Amino acid sequence: MQLSEAARRLLDILDPEGVLIGGICGTLYGVERFTRDVDIAADLDAETIVQRLNDAGIDAAVRRSHEPGDLSWVVHGLFEGIEFQVLPASETGVDHGSCEIKAGLRIADIHSFIASKCIAAGQQDMHDVAALCLMHPELEAFCRKSAEEHGCLEKLESWLNDRRLQQRYSPRKD
Amino acid sequence: MTRMTRRKRELLAEIEKSLPMSIYRLARQTGRNYRRVFDHVKELAGAGLVKIRPDVRNGRRVSMVEGIAWQRLQRLDELFVFKAEIDAAQ
Lengths: 174, 90
Fold this sequence. Notes:
The complex is a heterodimer of chains A (about 170) and B (about 90). Chain A is α+β, with helices and mostly antiparallel strands. Chain A is built from eight helices and seven strands; from the N terminus they run αβαβαβββββααααα. Chain A has a single domain (about 5-170), classed as Beta Polymerase, domain 2 (2-Layer Sandwich). Chain A is globular and about 45 Å long. The relative contact order of chain A is 0.15. With about 90 residues, chain B is an alpha+beta fold.
């Protein structure tokens, strides 16, 4: 099964509360990087998500955490050989009312997507945010503010100063 | 492209959020004149904002229009298959 098809089917199961975040969402906004899993933020509780997935014949389990800084739960599973995670929308900066449709998929709007990346704050996440900043300079102030709020401004600046990233994503001025 | 008018912008937004579809269907979906939609889509394709590809549906030749988001998703799917093949070979 194609990755996009898996995302489409999982979104159908979690309709209308689920929205795509993560690598596929980044791809749809123009970030060029590879991903092999499907990340969804859902405005549902973990039990309801597992129930809906089970009803659709998909095994899923909940991983809970009480560590500070961790998400309180993540539903994870394997769908036709493709890994997926469903995360709590309220903890990932995604408001399910703020979504848009691209290529038939319901995805987090660009501001929610940036917020989710700044909350995750890994190097790959900051790469994605920097790429979006470079493609859409009008978003830079929002990206910096969001990164500052979540303590990852330094990482973002490091990526914004990366010459390869600048060459790849800065709009051409011709 | 001569100018990005409101009508072309609306058409582009409709294409971006949709799965690939025929120009005929796009015209029906937006309630606009087929010929006008066809001309606008050709202009958008000329500017690299959408892609038109020929296809055959029910034995008839049709022009399918794809948005950039769809093309990005296709590239990701191709890469996914390629990586899966590499993993399987190792």
